[in-house]
Amino acid sequence: MKPFTYERATSAAEAASAAAGRKGAKFIAGGTNLLDLMKLEIEAPVHLIDVNGTGLDKMEETDEGGLRIGALVSNTALASDIRVRRDYGVLTRAIVAGASGQLRNKATTGGNLLQRTRCSYFYDTNQSCNKRKPGSGCAAKGGYSRQLGIVGVSDACIATYPGDMAVALRVLDAVVETMKPDGTTRAIPIGEFHKLWGDTPHIETALEPGEIITAVTLPKPLGGTHIYHKVRDRRSYAFALVSVAAVLDENGKGRVAVGGIAPRPWRVEAADAALPDVRAAAQALTQGASPTDQNAFKIALVERTLAGVMAKARGEAA
Fold first, then answer.
1. Helices 297-313, 278-285: inter-axial angle, 10-degree rounding
2. Which residue intervals of the chain are DSSP H helices?
3. Are 112 and 166 in contact (CB under 8 A)?
4. What's the pLDDT tens digit per position in 64-94?
5. Tens of pLDDT along 33-54?
6. From CA 190, how far away is CA 187, in angstroms rounded?
């Protein structure tokens, strides 16, 4: 790990201002992903701004009937909150499907959105990776790609966004609230927060330099049946090959988002419109897919996982 300096911020405005004034600065809260990347020298911030004292750890109901979740609310606190369990069950189920209890105790809502891909070539500094070193190439293309993306990828990068929580936030149409160094704020729809790779896979989110996540807002509850189903190579503590977050009514109509296949939680309007026709919805979700020989199975797996989710919604599966 390379040397760095450190300070504690007491407000979001102070943190954003500090980041703007120091090139190479990074925010740190739970540190569950950033510290690993620093140890491997994939991330080498010259200055860390500890945001744990900024007071962004509250949850409150909004005037619109939704829920505002502070960026520092831990994954454990979020998943166990009675309002979330009652009204946004897909979010609780997605969070519990990820990581371990110890990590969920430290991981935060804001940090979870910013976790970086688990592509093995990104983590291996001996390999070329346009995400880690722009312009160096993509060793994953032609390499081991079983876990990697099939839609929304590019010639520059075929990595996936790894998280579970954001897949549920996408199906719920959450909004990410931020503050810039000049004190202005933004509300970014979750569907626009994570970028497609294109030619610049190192630019992963809509955040500008120094901009800090302050909260995530959920709209008023949708009702319906909330399901999160994650398919992975082992039962626990593994990232998704394919995951499906769904909110469905009694007729099987509703909305779905898919994880494990793209640079961001993947939701397609045509797929929502096609429900409850599983095959048509799956075809819409994988339209334009460009898989490798090793991960082409994900196209069929999306349909099978969605079929399982629909069966569960009908009470036909555990």
1. 140
2. 12-20, 34-39, 75-80, 82-87, 89-96, 101-106, 109-113, 120-123, 165-171, 190-193, 269-274, 278-285, 297-313
3. yes
4. 999 999 999 999 999 999 999 999 999 999 9
5. 999 999 999 999 999 999 999 9
6. 9
Using an 8 Å Cβ cutoff, are 252 and 314 in contact?
A: yes
Distance of CA 227 to the CA centre of its chain: 17
Gap between the Cα atoms of 153 and 113, Å rounded: 19
The H or E element containing residue 256 is strand 254-259
- What DSSP string describes 202-237? T--BSPPTT-EEEEEEE-S---SEEEEEEE-SSSSS
69-106 per-residue burial string, b: 16 or more CB within 10 A, e: under 16:
bbbbbbbbbbbebeebeebbbbbbbbbbbbbeeeebeb
Per-residue pLDDT tens over the stretch 122-136? 999 999 999 999 999
**Is the model's pLDDT at 317 over the cut of 80?**
no
pLDDT at position 318 over 70: no
Q: 109: exposed, middle or buried (C-beta count within 10 Å: 0-12, 13-18, 19+)? A: buried
300 contacts: CB under 8 Å, gap ≥ 6? none
The phi, psi pair for 85, rounded to 5°, reads -65, -35
pTM of the model: 0.96
* Cα separation values, 71 from 30, 44, 89, 174, Å: 11, 23, 19, 13
